[in-house]
Amino acid sequence: MKSLVALSLPALALSAPLVADTLSAPPAFKINKVVSGGSGCPQGSIDIDWTNNGILPIYFSKDFTATVGPSVTADQSRKNCQINLDISYSAGYSYSVYSADYTGWADIDSGVKGTVVAHYYFSGEQATVTNPLSSFYSSPRLPLRPHSLPIHVPTQDIRLTQPQGSTSLTLQGPFTGKYVKKDDVAVSVWSPCGQQSLLNVNAEVALTPLGSYASGQLAVNKETGRFASQLYIRWKQC
Predict the structure, then answer these.
(1) Transmembrane stretches, by residue range (predicted)?
(2) How many angstroms separate the CA atoms of 116 and 125, rounded?
(3) pTM value surpassing 0.90
(4) How many CA atoms lie within 13 A of 213 on its CB side?
(5) Could you give the 3-state DSSP secondary structure of residue 75?
(6) How many domains does the structure of the chain reveal?
């Protein structure tokens, strides 16, 4: 597991327009510690490397793959990953996750349904978030079955349990190919002002039904063997 420890404001001035708000980033910030757990990401199995444009990529291992089929045990149908990011930054600043992308690969038979769910929240923080929009795009570079068509799936409303953003995407078989799940949160949950904070990301992939003759796999990127996520960070002075 790797993490880039500090970035400077001049480096952030080169940010892409997508993350222009990161121009107000603090002089320094760092990831102190990354803890991961769950059937989809045992400790030490993920890589995180903070880029210089306010994007935080997370790379999962092949453990984060849900599988169903005639000879597959039930515990393989659902994989969960809880990530805790201990982040510190200069006094007088706060940050939020305002968008996220998930890329992966699915091969699911007719009658099989796949879901990708993500939650974002700060430990102990009280705030309010509004509805995100989640959209799905199939990749033209990978073959799709003739009867599989690209779909656009709106996300459910955000749930406000300890306030957190919650988004989900559904893939209905038959489908074979790469997908990209995009989450956009209109009003973000902000970290405590000028304090070290614990950002939590809880992700899950699952396939149903169990015990049928239909088969499926969900989550691992076929090209790289990795399931990737990118979190987009916005900073502000507080």
Answers:
(1) none
(2) 25
(3) no
(4) 0
(5) helix
(6) 1
Which strands sit side by side in the sheet containing 78-89, from one edge to the other? 29-37, 78-89, 197-208, 113-122, 165-172
- Compute the CA torsion angle 6, 127, 169, 102 (nearest 10 deg): 0
Report the C-alpha gap between 175 and 103 in whole angstroms.
Answer: 15
For 52, 102, 147, the CA distances from 130, given in Å and listed in that order, are 28, 20, 35
CB 77 within 8 A of CB 210: yes
The whole-angstrom separation of Cα 31 and Cα 103 is 23
- Domain, as residue range, for 182: 61-228
* 75-95 pLDDT tens trace: 999 999 999 999 888 888 888
Query: In 3D, which of 136, 143, 196 has the Cα closest to residue 168?
Result: 136
In a domain, 197, yes or no: yes
Contacts of 230 (CB under 8 A, 6+ apart): 55, 56, 57, 58, 100, 101
